[in-house]
Amino acid sequence: MGTAKLPTFGTTTNPSIDVINEIKEIALLDFDFVEISIEEPCGSHRIIARNARKINRVIAKHKMFALGHAPWWIDLGSPHEIVRKAWISECEKIIDVCKKISARKITFHAHSQSMLLSDNTLRREVISNYIENMKSLVDYAGGDTVVMLENTTEMSSLKDFDKIISGVRGLGVNLDIGHAFIAGGMKSVSSHIKKFSKRIEHIHMHDNHGKMDEHLPIGLANIDFRKTINDLKKIKYDKTVSLEVFVPERTVTRISEEIVKEIWSSK
């Protein structure tokens, strides 16, 4: 297969901790970028906007760049119009603040209440609402910002996720490997990579045992990352990868990055 070009690597901030301190800690570990979680309690769009200049200085000092990560619970597929309109307003504010920190990729989530997705009529309505609202956000962001949708554990159907992606021109995919694995093991991971090969703009990597969204370090559970990375190399993926590993000691996240890089660099 040959040596593939490496993507750039980063990790996400913990929104429960001061955002400036989080960025500084990530910078000290020499990641290429920081993916800023724009959510409460310590990283809301209001807090990010208030600290935008300071954030830009820290990022520039460490020669990094920023990505944006919206709250996972935003429900753009809600059957209630008043709810959807309120969330669109919040999403536009998130896009605005991402531009203030030059975050040119922003992740939203294919989130919906599972009770809605279990009903076929409501499922179609949720998907239709997502298509309409993601079109709106892509248009609002403009051509200089990539709006992405992340596959989730509750909207786990590849077919349903594809309906949204296919229905929105310019919408990128943030492929969460852990979520794809929960949806159907390694077959699901490979299917997601193949299906969205031309639309993947960003990747989240973390490990789990196939039942829960555990966000474990790479190699600690059941995902076959050698096969995953080989599949990504086949589509010549070389954009951005976030190690979305949720552990108190961030050096463990750096070790996960080194494991992924070693696999990626091997023939």
Written description of the protein model:
This protein has 267 residues and is an alpha/beta fold. The chain has a single domain (8-264), classed as Alpha-Beta Barrel (TIM Barrel). It has ten helices and eight strands. It has helices spanning 19-28, 45-50, 52-61, 81-100, 114-117, 120-141, 158-167, 177-195, 225-234, 251-265; strands at 8-12, 33-37, 65-69, 105-109, 146-150, 172-176, 200-205, 240-243. It has an eight-stranded parallel barrel, surrounded by five helices. The chain is globular.
What name goes with the CATH superfamily?
A: Divalent-metal-dependent TIM barrel enzymes
The assigned CATH architecture is Alpha-Beta Barrel
Question: Could you report the average pLDDT, rounded to the nearest whole number?
Answer: 95
The secondary-structure class comes to: alpha/beta
Q: Largest sheet, described in full?
A: 8 strands, parallel, barrel
Order of helices and strands: EHEHHEHEHHEHEHEHEH
What proportion of the residues form beta strands (DSSP E)? 5-15%
CATH topology label: TIM Barrel
Give, in spatial order, the strands making up the sheet with the most strands.
1-2-3-4-5-6-7-8
In the predicted model, the low-confidence regions spanning at least 5 consecutive residues are none
Number of strands: 8
List the total number of helices.
10
